[in-house]
Amino acid sequence: MRTRKQDAKAFEAMEEWNAKYPPGTAVDLKLPDGSIMRTNTNGYSGVTMQGQAVIWLEGIRGQHLLSNCTPVIRTCIGCGNKVHPGEVPACGH
To answer: Against a cut of 0.85, is the pTM above it?
Structure first.
């Protein structure tokens, strides 16, 4: 049975994700067999009626747990600085 604490934790995870990562963010999804699949988010995250923070991904049916998704941090080709999803490179490249 779900608790209010679990619900609050899921909503907090959802809000934190949505604040940091816009739709279209590249992510690595950990699949049940342990392999990794790179894809993009297809919208904002949400919380299921079961109290789980989830996200929808391009090219994959259904929703997936946020805990199985890792945002892809890219490297600026102009200066080599790390650029997190949703950020504009400070270097202007």
So the answer is: no
CA gap 37, 47 in Å, rounded: 22
- In angstroms, the Cα distances linking 38 to 1, 25, 33, 60, 69 are 33, 11, 15, 11, 9
pLDDT given for residue 11 in this prediction: 94
Q: Tens digit of pLDDT for each residue in 23-33?
A: 999 999 999 99
State how far the Cα of 80 lies from the Cα of 65, in Å rounded to an integer: 31
The Cα–Cα gap between 12 and 74 comes to 25
CATH of the domain spanning 4-83, picked from 2.60.40, 3.40.1340, 2.30.30, 1.20.120:
2.30.30
Per DSSP, 41 falls in state: B
For residue 73, what are the contacts with CB-CB under 8 A and spacing of at least 6? 82, 83, 84, 85
Give mean pLDDT, residues 69-74: 89
